[in-house]
Amino acid sequence: MIIDVHCHAWPDALAERALGGRVPQLERHGDGKISTLHRVLARSGVDKGVLLGIADTARHVDAVNRFVAAQRGPDLVPFGTVHPDLPLEDNLASLRRHGIAGVKLHSLFQGFAYDDPRVWDLLEAFGSRIAVIAHVGAGGDRQSNERATPAMIRAIVRRFPDLRLIACHFGGYHRLEEAEEQLLGEDVLLETSWPPTMARLAPERVRAIIGRHGANRVVFGSDWPMADPGAEISAIRALGLSEEATAGILGGNAARLLGLGPPAGAPPGRHDRAGQP
Question: Residue range 11-32: average pLDDT?
Answer without folding.
Answer: 83
